[in-house]
Fold:
Amino acid sequence: MRDGACRCGAVLYSIDGPVRDLIVCHCGACVEATGGPWAASAVAREDLTVVDEATLRWDRAAVSEHDARRGSCRSCGVVVFWDAPARPTVSFAAATLVDASDLEVAGEIWVGETAARSAATAHPAGLPASVVVPWRG
Ligand SMILES: [Zn+2]
Ligand SMILES: [Zn+2]
Structure:
């Protein structure tokens, strides 16, 4: 059993079943909707319970061949779900899980040049000492 919530706590959901490892989507639509690459897990539709559907606003995803929609919180605006109705699963933002520490990044998709460059130099724990910062003596 896992629980999740948006930043303000209006959107609450629970998951009773296995979840997928994380896929980080760098597509233009995700970046536009969320302000950056979107790290998402996914769950079987029947294993997901949203406490109050009325807290969600659904927008058609700008670019999608799956007729997908993004579900965001009506209060704080955080994008919580990505849902393509024909699929048996629903994707959700990893950052909204109460505890996603056991999930690994399984892959990065729609990676453009900038993201590919940064992925090659990724550091999991913030700025490493090897980065030269001119104003740091
Ligand atoms: Zn919220
Ligand atoms: Zn995307």
In short: The chain has one domain: 2-119. The longest strand covers residues 38-44. The helical segments are 28-34, 113-119.
